[in-house]
Amino acid sequence: MPLYEYLCRDCEKAAELLIRGDEKPVCPACGGQQLMKLLSVPAAPSTSGGGVEPRNPGPAGGSCGSGCACFPGG
């Protein structure tokens, strides 16, 4: 089952939700149903074999998330 990232338009909180079939997503913070699906970066397995942590490229590197200037709640 895929996980999707949503932003609640009522309380402006972001949440990662598991949505099955025709289920309507509901904000876990306020119970609102005015959720906007956010674009997310899919996880990819590392082929390097090392235990290197993923680096955060920051706004100049094209990262989009809660710390990004294009994120409505940030």
Automatic annotation (TrEMBL):
Domain of life, source organism: Bacteria
Give the region (Disordered) as residue ranges.
43-65
Tell me the ranges covered by the Putative regulatory protein FmdB zinc ribbon domain, including all copies: 1-40
Q: Name one Pfam family in it.
A: Zn_ribbon_8
- Which SMART domains does the protein's record reference? CxxC_CXXC_SSSS
Under which name does UniProt file this protein? Zinc ribbon domain protein
* Source organism of the structure: Posidoniimonas polymericola
Its lineage reads: Bacteria, Pseudomonadati, Planctomycetota, Planctomycetia, Pirellulales
